[in-house]
Amino acid sequence: MMISNAVVDFLGVMVLILGFAVIAENFIHSLIRHLQLQSLLLAVLIGVVGLQVKLPELYALGILTAIFRGWIIPEILIKDIKEDEVWEHRELSTSAKHTLVVGIIGAFCGMVLYSGIYPILGTWRAEIPFILLIMGLLIIILRKNAIAQISGYIVEENALLYMGVILAPVSFLLEIGILLDIIGAVMLAVILSAEKEYGPLQIDELSG
Amino acid sequence: MNELLMLYGLIIAPVIASTISLHKNWKIGGYITITASIITLLFSLSIFLRAENISTKWFYVDSTTASMFLIIAATYTLASMHSIICIQKVENFYLPPNHYWTFLNIFALTMFLAVSTPDLGYAWLWLEASTIASAVLILMEKGKTHIESAWRYIIIASTGLGIALLSVIIFGFVSGNFLWNAHIAGTSAVLIGVLALLGFGTKAGLFPVHTWLPDAHGTAPAPVSAMLSGALLPSALIVYYRVYLAVASDKLFIITLSMGILTVIIAGILLISQRKLKRLLAYSTMDVMGLATVGIALTYYNPALIYFVLLLFGLHALAKSALFLTAGTLKRVGLDEISEIRDLVKISPAMAFTVVVSSLAVTGAPPFAMFIGEFGIISQLTDYPLAFAAFLTGLVLSFLALNYWMVQMVFPSENRETPKIKFKDYAVPFFASLSMVILSIVAYAYFLWGWFV
Predict the structure, then answer these.
(1) Which 8-state DSSP code applies to residue B422?
(2) Is residue A88 very low, low, confident or very high in pLDDT (cuts 50, 70, 90)?
(3) Angle at which helices A172-198 and A73-83 pack, to 10 degrees?
(4) Degrees (nearest 5) of the Cα angle B357, B233, B184?
(5) Where are the alpha helices (DSSP H) in B139-186?
(6) pLDDT averaged per 10 residues, chain B (length 453)
(7) CA B115 – CA B426 distance, rounded (Å)
(8) Any chain B CB within 8 A of the CB of A70?
């Protein structure tokens, strides 16, 4: 149990580092690859927790995460951006240094906030997904391009699944995983069809 | 027929209708959807009148759930009936028209399931599924604004529901299961409550996480706007109410109350400056959700107040459906901006009646039954003078703003040409407003009977 806990925490740290890579990345192509790697590591993490608690649903969830978020979504996005010349250049209106600094400040705030939550949960193991969740939210707010926003949503999804697996590994996590993937697919469909008709989808602000 | 069979009937009807609606001929989907919605309305009415609790592993139906069934089914019926007229007027479909019916049925189904599950995890799951169904419905018509609105809606609502999921996970961690009849106290209860309020509040359009609301309501087809406003937002608030019951505390009461009052005030201010009719109605919905949130907060001290909240939801569903469907009809003849809509009395007295009656009802003017709901909630707030004053200010603002714009639209101000609109194009909202008048009479009779006897 001790060794598998250490493996889970190690994978968690790697997932978090990749969260920083996603928030700092300016090139869409690399951003998608970071996201792909993060999802694959999360899939392994879910599988290891599944072995620990002996829940077959978690194996299925791990496999699903690897297939859908680790393979299908990133590959479709990569195929899409190769077809569109605009992505040969940097993502518009984003400064890497700026977003990385905001990400670090966000992560620090997450640590401080989690120290307030710790007495309730009684475990530090949910701190990593909590920080990752804040980073996902930051990516959604900071980025203006729809593809970059979807990356924030996927980071948030990863954080929630990670937290669910660590805190409350119950059977409906599989259903949640499937639903979150369907939402990811709908988002992807919206982006791709919008780009075909109207070019890259730039959302200036997430307000009405 | 026993209650459980009726409940299964209520769930299965939209499932069958959504499957049949996949047929290429969209008219088949349309008629089967109307049939399914009427069946769900009859079943939900029967479940409501029998007033017996149902408790299984997958369903929990009490008076709150039964009332929500009725509200969702009524909105679903009105929306599907009006859709058959509305869909014929769409010029550019983004998705095949038969998909409209499929997703309309799925949308209704997810709401029925969200309010009837005893498990918070599944309630979250069905609410999130409703986001997908409704986002697809917003995308039915071609146009960049539709895509942008759908995108904003998916990204904001899903992000908000992500926070709600966090509250559900912590709920499960602390209580050991996800059943909402658990009771949690202490700091963890406040944390769960605040996260749930933010998360489910996003879906319910509460300030400051309401920003998807005006765009989505403004660009969705009118029947979908009616379902979003009349059924989906109340469903999200009822799921929050279930969490609130399990984790309520003095602190959470203050937080929920403050968020409700702030929502009412902000909605009142935003209502004043609106130019487009459907956005105006969206902010009016935000106002009613703020009012209901205040009611939910007060159930901590007086649990019976939930009946006033449900009465509010019921009348709001009918009135707002009537207004959104009328707004959709006007939009189809090119009248989108409030300043362009004048002389509704001249266009059609029946349409003017619908607009006046519905806007008065939705702002809680007597003699409509929403007044009873509003009065019931306000009268419980008198122990908190500051909150009472702020709340009342917000309500007065929204009352004046909405009714001012409606009066501008209804009565003649200058000589201008009015478009010709056939009665069948606004028959559904007209009958909805009539049924609202009847429901108000029934509600008054019920309360007066209780008062005298």
Answers:
(1) -
(2) low
(3) 10
(4) 130
(5) 144-175
(6) 86 95 88 95 93 86 94 96 86 83 95 94 92 88 82 86 91 86 86 94 90 86 93 96 93 95 94 89 94 95 92 93 92 83 84 91 86 89 91 92 88 72 86 88 80 66
(7) 30
(8) no
Q: Which residue has the tokens 């209106």?
A: A93
> With contacts defined as CB-CB under 8 Å, which chain A residues touch B125?
172, 175-176, 179
Instruction: Note whether A153 contacts B: Cβ–Cβ < 8 A.
Output: yes
Let me know: does B189 contact B251? Beta carbons within 8 Å.
Answer: no
Contact B170 A206 (CB under 8 A): no
Which residues in chain A have Cβ-Cβ distances shorter than 8 Å to B188?
120
Interface contact A194-B144, CB threshold 8 A: yes
- Answer for the pair B187, B246: CB distance below 8 angstroms, yes or no: no
Residue A206 within any structural domain of the chain: no
Contact A208/B at CB under 8 A = yes
| CB-count exposure of residue B452 (10 Å: 0-12, 13-18, 19+) | exposed
Does the distance separating the beta carbons of A163 and B162 come in below 8 Å?
A: no
Instruction: Quote the CA–CA distance of B206 and B196 in Å, as a whole number.
Output: 12
pLDDT-derived band at A86, boundaries 50, 70, 90: low
Residues 6+ apart with CB under 8 A from A169: A49, A50, A53, A55, A58
List of residues 6+ apart from A47 with CB closer than 8 A:
A58, A59, A62, A63
Inter-axis angle of helices A146-167 and A56-67, nearest 10: 170
Does residue A76 form part of some domain?
Answer: yes
Number of domains in chain A: 1
Among the partner-chain residues A168, A186, A201, the one whose CB lies closest to the CB of B172 is A168
B121 CB neighbours in chain A (<8 A) are: 170, 172, 176
Dihedral of alpha carbons B200, B202, B203, B204, sign: positive
CB contacts of A170 in chain B (<8 Å) are 121, 172, 178
As for the ipTM of the complex, it is 0.86
Q: Do B151 and A201 touch (CB under 8 A)?
A: yes
Burial class (CB in 10 A: 0-12, 13-18, 19+), B372: buried
Q: List all residues 6 or more positions away from B347 whose beta carbon is below 8 Å from its beta carbon.
A: B418, B419, B420, B421
Span between the terminal Cα atoms of chain A, in Å = 49
Place of tokens 């709150």: B64
Mutation target for B interface from A115, A135, A155, A167: give the one with most B CBs within 10 A: A167
Least CB-CB distance to A179: which of B119, B129, B218?
B129
Give the domain extent around A34: 2-86+95-198
The confidence score (pLDDT) of residue B180 equals 84
